[in-house]
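> call design_seq(struct)
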């Protein structure tokens, strides 16, 4: 029996190249649509201005993709991304090479701004989800610590973080050629992100999501092209510009594909503020639930994560006018500001996640004395859902709302509906 000598596309690099082009194409879609990158610090007010491919000729070592954002408050920020379909976040040659490139750019003041710019390892599906999750946790902790001393205390408190910390430290010291101080390493790690995409999968969720996003824009302007066709055209443009080490901006894309101007006119394409607010909130919520220091039972953790996804799908599908009316009445009952924001959606999302664990059939309304309807096993009931974003305002909300509702009830008797209160804590 003979064996094939034909190498696989992945082993020869073709699989990785295709993965790289698809990720780059998603960023092009985000750029022309005003969409947001998967890094929290680049959400509010950040819009992609241009994307550079294969920037080695500009003395950039992290050269797969450089994403430049439009100036915010007069300051320009960038993501320097290295894309690897198959990379293990452990002490190995490929990982060390990526960190070496990061370190070279990090210390090149002509290339990298340590305050405004960041690095990203963009990878395919992790070979170990535990290592991937622990790595993102380690890097997030670096960003949230006040100094390197605080960071090291958190690292030494968790065994799973210590090994990963040493992995990064060894890679940086190999790149530097000498030892690195704790403060120096902390400063570097604060600017490193790890992001996973599943574009290497035949059933890619990431591709499905971006195609669905294109379809949504198409329905708003009744575009004639299919979303898949637009994706393929943009992918072809990205592939061509990679060979040319090109720079793409929105004007360049619209010049090549004029039909997309209507699709992505910012006056026609509205970014869903509900989804945007929940996306930010759920990061910390998931982290709290899944933390190794959490006392939550594993079965309850699984239940909560599943409920989070169910509530997420339901909330982002609610008509914006309906949820705006809801928030106006119940987010801050004492307030009279007509400029309603969507900031309180995160608290609403968390509270509904708990309720949804038990009762799946719920709906929000805007009635004076009840606003959440629950239906289970043929029984239905109404609840008064009250929540606040600011803990110090909560007692005042309860007092004023309680008096208001007491005055409205017949004969000044308390109404029959129960209250569900969020953010009360010990108050």
């Amino acid at each position: 029996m003979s064996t094939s000598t034909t190498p696989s596309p992945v082993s020869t690099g073709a699989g990785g190249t295709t993965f790289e082009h698809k990720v780059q194409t998603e960023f092009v879609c985000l750029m022309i649509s005003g969409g947001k990158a998967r890094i929290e610090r680049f959400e509010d007010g950040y819009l992609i201005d241009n994307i550079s491919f294969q920037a080695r000729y500009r003395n950039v070592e992290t050269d797969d993709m450089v994403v430049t954002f439009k100036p915010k408050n007069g300051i320009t920020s960038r993501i320097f991304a290295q894309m690897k379909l198959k990379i293990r976040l452990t002490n190995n040659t490929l990982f060390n090479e990526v960190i070496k490139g990061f370190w070279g750019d990090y210390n090149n003041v002509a290339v990298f701004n340590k305050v405004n710019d960041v690095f990203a390892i963009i990878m395919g599906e992790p070979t170990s989800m535990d290592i991937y999750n622990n790595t993102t946790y380690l890097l997030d902790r670096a960003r949230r610590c006040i100094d390197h001393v605080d960071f090291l205390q958190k690292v030494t408190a968790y065994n799973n973080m210590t090994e990963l910390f040493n992995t990064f430290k060894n890679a940086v010291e190999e790149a530097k050629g000498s030892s690195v101080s704790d403060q120096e390493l902390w400063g570097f790690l604060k600017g490193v992100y790890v992001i996973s995409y599943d574009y290497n999968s035949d059933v890619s969720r990431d591709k499905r999501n971006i195609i669905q996003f294109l379809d949504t824009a198409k329905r708003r302007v009744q575009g004639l092209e299919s979303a898949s066709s637009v994706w393929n055209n943009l992918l072809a443009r990205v592939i061509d510009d990679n060979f040319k080490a090109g720079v793409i901006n929105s004007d360049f894309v619209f010049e090549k594909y004029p039909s997309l101007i209507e699709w992505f006119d910012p006056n026609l394409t509205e970014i869903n503020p509900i989804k945007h607010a929940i996306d930010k909130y759920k990061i910390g919520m998931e982290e709290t639930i899944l933390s190794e220091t959490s006392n939550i039972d594993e079965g309850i953790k699984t239940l909560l994560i599943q409920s989070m996804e169910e509530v997420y799908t339901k909330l982002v599908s609610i008509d914006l006018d309906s949820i705006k009316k809801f928030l106006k009445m119940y987010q801050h009952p004492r307030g009279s500001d007509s400029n309603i924001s969507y900031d309180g959606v995160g608290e609403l999302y968390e509270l509904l996640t708990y309720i949804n664990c038990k009762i799946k059939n719920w709906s929000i309304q805007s009635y004076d004395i009840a606003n959440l309807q629950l239906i289970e096993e043929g029984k239905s009931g109404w609840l008064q859902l009250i929540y606040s974003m600011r803990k110090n305002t909560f007692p005042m909300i309860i007092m004023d709302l309680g008096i208001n509702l007491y005055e409205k009830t017949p004969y000044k008797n308390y109404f029959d509906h129960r209250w569900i209160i969020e953010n009360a804590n010990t108050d």
